[in-house]
Write a structure and sequence with these properties.
Four Helix Bundle (Hemerythrin (Met), subunit A); Alpha-Beta Plaits; five-stranded mixed beta sheet; 2 domains; two-stranded antiparallel sheet; alpha+beta; 335 residues
Length: 335
């Protein structure tokens, strides 16, 4: 039975390096990326499931499949493909915590165990961070830039199962949902697609979903921002003033920061002017959104005002700054 190593990387202290070398000797690390391999990953998941049962806690299983990776090897050679896999491994590690487990299951398939992540919304924020990081091209030594996309699936324990096989099956089914709906999609397990969390909507519909700039990563982030805002407004309308609601507002602000950083990164990658002005505007927009949800003690009149302000904030961002930026990005061939 392999050791239950708690760190996600074996590249720091001496004892951690020693453990990494021991794991490698016993065949528990992927030789290309240095990540836990399939055997060690399933061992970690068994431990995570046992701990979840003991302490009545939970965690998220996330699977990542790279899109059209075979074409990378075909067009640029296996060395380039290996470089992409190593860069993806480093990027995944950078987007999670030390207590989480990132593994390479084989080929272009990766998986993550997110300790203590127990809601769809928490997992969605992490998945969108990964999508943003994957939007950065991999630069080869010869100057070639390779862009790689991915599909991501999410399952939660205990909702989707308390056994390894059961949980993996749910994640695989969620991956099929993601791949059947196009590239750069998050697929959720059936329980999450049908969860009450998705159905908390006692708020007026927002016109934001009518604005679809046509760049997948930006569209996905806009949709997530709208869903978060609508869910928060619905919870407030239902009388929720709990710590969990405050946490969801913090997650909304974090998601908006991820979205704003995506835009700024795209501007930098394509040599567009005005990045500093865009950043300054984003800082103001975050402060404005924070102020809108700054007081959870709403009466009916205040709630109507907050609903209107939140929808105007989102629609104003999507239809004004983003529409102009997307038009320029499309002129650069990004669509």
């Amino acid at each position: 039975m392999p050791p239950n190593q708690e760190t996600k990387s074996a590249t720091v202290p001496h004892k951690t390096r020693q453990l990494g070398h021991a794991l490698e000797r016993h065949g528990f690390l992927d030789p290309l990326t240095g990540l836990p391999n399939r055997d060690l990953f399933f061992d970690r998941m068994d431990h995570e499931l046992a701990r979840a049962r003991r302490y009545e806690s939970g965690f998220a299983l996330m699977k990542i499949d790279l899109d059209e990776f075979a074409e990378v090897n075909k067009s640029n050679g296996k060395t380039a493909g290996d470089r992409v896999l190593r860069d993806v491994a480093r990027m995944l590690i950078a987007n999670v915590r030390d207590i989480d487990t990132v593994a390479r299951l084989g080929g272009d398939e990766f998986a993550i165990l997110l300790d203590g992540v127990t809601t769809k919304k928490e997992a969605e924020v992490i998945a969108l961070k990964i999508f943003r990081s994957l939007s950065d091209p991999v630069r080869l030594d010869n100057g070639t830039q390779i862009r790689i996309g991915a599909s991501i699936s999410v399952a939660l324990s205990p909702q989707d199962g308390s056994q390894t096989v059961q949980l993996m099956m749910c994640a695989d089914q969620a991956m099929n949902v993601a791949k059947n709906n196009g590239k750069g999609i998050i697929g959720f397990s059936k329980s999450l697609r049908e969860s009450p969390e998705q159905q908390v909507q006692a708020t007026p519909p927002s016109p934001v979903n009518e604005v679809n700039p046509g760049i997948p990563i930006i569209d996905a982030q806009h949709a997530a921002m709208e869903n978060y805002i609508r869910g928060i407004l619905g919870s407030i309308r239902n009388g929720d003033k709990s710590v969990n609601l405050a946490k969801r507002i913090d997650l909304l602000l974090e998601l908006c920061q991820v979205h704003f950083q995506t835009e700024e990164d795209l501007m930098t990658q394509h040599g567009l002017p005005g990045v500093e002005e865009h950043h300054a505007n984003h800082v103001r927009q975050l402060a404005s959104l924070r102020a809108i949800f700054g007081n959870l003690d709403f009466d009916e009149a205040k709630l109507e005002m907050v609903t209107r302000q939140a929808n105007e904030w989102l629609l104003g961002h999507v239809s004004d700054p983003d529409s102009g930026l997307v038009a320029v990005l499309k002129s650069k061939g990004l669509a």
